[in-house]
Amino acid sequence: MAARRGLHGVLVDDLGRRIVHHEIAPGAQLPLDELGEQYGVSRTVVRETMRVLEAKGLIVARQNVGTRVLADDAWHALDVDVLRWRLSGPDAKDARQDLLELRSAVEPTASRLAALRRNDATAERLVAASQRMRDALEPEDVDAFTAADVDFHATLFEAAGNPLIAELLSLVGAALDDRIQVVASHGISAVAVDLHCELAAAVAAGDADQAARTAGDLIVRSYEDSL
């Protein structure tokens, strides 16, 4: 999630997380004045927060009725904040499964397109990012590994040359953020590093079929590592 500043950001993150984690139940009314007092913020900040949460499908505000928390099926599932909140809550296992299915539908195609539309610059960036991931393996440098991983996937989606696919990068970013916690807890997976290197090599070689297969293997491995 993009870093937010100030009291407005704190309130959005905290209330959004509490709603998605069902700490505030569907159907519950949100008393705006009480929220302002609880968080020590102005009514303007509370109203701005409600607008953000309503745009994400978490609440609905009606004049003379009040502000009510909505059930899960109203949430905007492709909103990156909603996904990140799900990944950090009691619904994390289901969220990872949902994300696995989405990534399985998109990333092999993105990898295939990247190989078909390869150019020297993007191929070099992919190979370099995968090498940085390998360099981070032995010293268990999680920060360096994570930075290289983010760069790898951003380059891959850019190389696909499809703006609609590129729009989904933020959701993959949520998966990568989730994986940071996995890596921090369990260490860097040598198998995942190998698969990134194989994918980079396939794209660089223009081997679309191999790129798609390796991307699929990598997604499954990432999911298994998160369990």
Mean pLDDT: 91
Number of helices: 11
Cα-based radius of gyration, to the nearest Å = 20 Å
Principal-axes geometry comes out as elongated
Strand order of the largest sheet: 1-2
Count up the domains.
2
Low-confidence stretches: none
**CATH first level of the largest domain:** Mainly Alpha
Major beta sheet summary: 2 strands, antiparallel
Approximately how much beta-strand content do the residues carry?
under 5%
**CATH superfamily placement of the largest domain:** GntR ligand-binding domain-like
- Strand runs, count: 2
Instruction: Supply the CATH architecture of the largest domain.
Output: Up-down Bundle
Order of helices and strands: HHHEEHHHHHHHH
The structural class is mainly alpha
CATH topology of the largest domain: Four Helix Bundle (Hemerythrin (Met), subunit A)
Distance between the termini: 22 Å
Helix content: over 70%
Keywords: DNA-binding, Transcription, Transcription regulation
InterPro entries: GntR_C, TF_FadR/GntR_C, Tscrpt_reg_HTH_GntR, WH-like_DNA-bd_sf, WH_DNA-bd_sf
Domain HTH gntR-type: 5-72
Protein name: HTH gntR-type domain-containing protein
Itemize the secondary structure elements and their pairings:
Blueprint: H1 6-20, H2 32-39, H3 43-55, E1 59-62, E2 66-69, H4 80-87, H5 92-116, H6 120-135, H7 142-160, H8 163-167, H9 169-186, H10 190-205, H11 208-226
Antiparallel strand pairs: 1-2
Helix pairs in contact: 1-3, 1-4, 2-3, 4-9, 5-7, 5-10, 5-11, 6-7, 6-10, 7-9, 10-11
